[in-house]
Write a structure and sequence with these properties.
There is one protein chain. With 367 residues, the protein is an alpha/beta fold. The protein folds into two domains: 149 residues, Rossmann fold; 164 residues, Dihydrodipicolinate Reductase, domain 2, CATH 3.30.360. The strands form two sheets. It has a nine-stranded mixed β-sheet with strand order 14-13-12-11-7-10-9-8-15, with helices on one face. A six-stranded parallel β-sheet has the order 3-2-1-4-5-6, sandwiched between helices. It is globular and about 55 Å long.
Length: 367
C-alpha cells in the first residue's frame, strides 16, 4: 500500500504533457500514438449522446494524435443523420446494416434508442464488426446474454458503455480501493441517484450506472431485494438491498422524485475504519483517520485544460476500445459486464413486482 494518491488525471491535460513536455493542451505530435494501426469507426444512432458525447470523444482522441476516423453515421431521421455526418466528416446513411456493408468499419458505436441496440449489434456481429454498445446493453437480460454469447461464438469483441469507470473521480476511488487504502476488502457499498426530467427510464437510463459501479467496486451480486414507490405502472422511487458474493452488503436509493440539476449522485465504499466517497461524479474524498484531515481531490472547473469528454469517461473508454480492437489491450468494460448490469435491473423489477428476494445467481441473472 502506497501513501501517494494514484496518478489519475481529472479530465485535464496530463501532468507529463503539461509540465514535462510543455504541451499544455496535449496536442503535440505523439509518435507512439501515431504508430498505432489506423481504424475506421461507424456510428449507429445520431441523437444527443452521439453528438454531445461520442463524436467529441473521437475528436479529442484525434486531436491527441489517435489515427482514427469516423466513416459513416446511420439514423433513420434523415436530418439527424445529415447533421451528425457534418459534425463528424462522415457519410450519412439511413440504416445501420446498409452502412456496415458500404463502409466496412473496424468498430461500430451502437448509440440507437435502447430498443434498437440488439438488432444493430447482431447485424454488426454477423459482419464481423466489433461493437461498443451504449447502456443498457439490451432491453432485457435474456437478450443481453444472447448478444454476449453470439459475440463470443463469433470471436467478435463486444464492449459495453460504462463510462463512469473511466471518469477520473471514480477511477481515482477504484485505484484507492485497489491500493488497499480502505484497510480491507470493500465491505459496504452505498449509492444514491435521483432524476428530475421525466423522459429517461429511472432504471435503464440512470440507475444502470450505479449497478455497474457496484459490480465494479464490489464484485458479483448474489442476492437482491427491492421496495418501491410506484407512480401508476412506473417506478418512482426504489431502495435496493444488495448481498454480494464476497459477503459484502450494499444499498442503492434511486428516485425520479428528485431533481436532475441539483446533487443527484453519491457513492460510498467502506472498508474497515476507512471509506471513500465520490460526490456527483465530481469530487473524490478518502476518510481514513479519526483525527487527521480528509484527503480529497476535485477538478478546477474553470480550468481551460479540462475536457468534458475526458472527465465524463467517454474518451478513455473509447481509447481502450480502440486498443482492444487492435489487440493491444484488454477490454475495460465487456459485454458480460453490460449484461450483468441489465441482470440487476431485471432482478430489481422482479423483486418489486413479486415482493421477494431474488437469487441473482440461481435465477441466471448474472453476466
Amino acid at each position: 500500500m502506497s501513501g501517494a494518491w494514484p496518478a489519475i488525471d481529472f479530465g485535464h491535460t496530463g501532468i507529463a504533457a503539461a509540465f514535462g513536455r510543455g504541451d499544455v493542451y496535449a496536442v503535440a505530435p505523439d509518435p507512439e500514438r501515431a504508430a498505432k494501426r489506423p481504424l475506421r469507426i461507424a456510428i449507429a444512432g445520431a441523437g444527443g449522446v452521439a453528438q454531445a458525447k461520442w463524436i467529441p470523444a473521437v475528436r479529442r482522441l484525434q486531436t491527441m494524435g489517435e489515427p482514427v476516423e469516423i466513416v459513416g453515421v446511420a439514423d433513420p431521421r434523415a436530418e439527424v443523420a445529415a447533421k451528425a455526418a457534418r459534425l463528424s466528416g462522415a457519410r450519412p446513411h439511413a440504416g445501420a446494416a446498409a452502412m456496415l456493408d458500404a463502409e466496412r468499419p473496424d468498430l461500430l458505436l451502437v448509440l440507437t434508442a435502447d430498443a434498437g441496440h440488439a438488432e444493430v449489434t447482431r447485424a454488426a456481429i454477423a459482419r464481423g464488426v466489433p461493437c461498443l454498445v451504449e447502456k443498457p446493453l439490451a432491453p432485457d437480460h435474456a437478450t443481453a446474454k444472447a448478444l454476449v454469447a453470439d459475440a463470443r461464438a463469433a470471436g467478435i469483441l463486444l464492449g459495453a458503455v460504462a463510462n463512469k469507470r473511466l471518469s477520473p473521480p471514480y477511477a481515482m476511488a477504484k485505484a484507492l480501493v485497489d491500493d488497499g487504502r480502505l484497510r480491507a476488502a470493500p465491505t459496504v457499498f452505498t449509492g444514491k441517484f435521483t432524476l428530475g426530467y421525466p423522459y429517461v427510464d429511472l432504471l435503464d437510463g440512470g440507475t444502470v450506472h450505479l449497478f455497474d459501479l457496484a459490480l465494479w467496486f464490489m464484485g458479483p451480486v448474489a442476492r437482491l431485494h427491492a421496495r418501491a414507490v410506484m407512480r401508476g405502472d412506473a417506478i418512482e422511487s426504489a431502495v435496493i438491498s444488495l448481498g454480494f458474493a464476497s459477503g459484502a452488503v450494499g444499498t442503492i436509493m434511486t428516485s425520479a422524485a428528485g431533481l436532475s440539476f441539483k446533487p443527484w449522485e453519491r457513492v460510498e465504499i467502506f472498508g474497515r475504519n476507512a471509506f471513500v466517497v465520490v460526490d456527483d461524479q465530481r469530487e473524490t474524498v478518502l476518510y481514513d483517520d479519526e483525527t487527521g484531515p480528509a484527503k480529497s481531490w476535485a477538478p478546477a472547473v474553470p480550468n481551460t485544460l479540462m475536457f468534458d469528454e475526458a472527465f465524463g469517461g467517454y474518451a478513455g473508454l473509447l481509447d481502450n476500445m480502440l486498443d482492444a480492437v487492435r489487440g493491444t489491450a484488454p477490454l475495460a468494460v465487456t459485454g458480460a459486464d453490460g449484461a450483468a448490469a441489465v441482470g440487476l435491473i431485471a432482478a430489481t423489477r422482479i423483486s418489486i413486482a413479486e415482493g421477494r428476494d431474488v437469487d441473482v445467481v440461481g435465477e441466471g441473472l448474472t453476466g
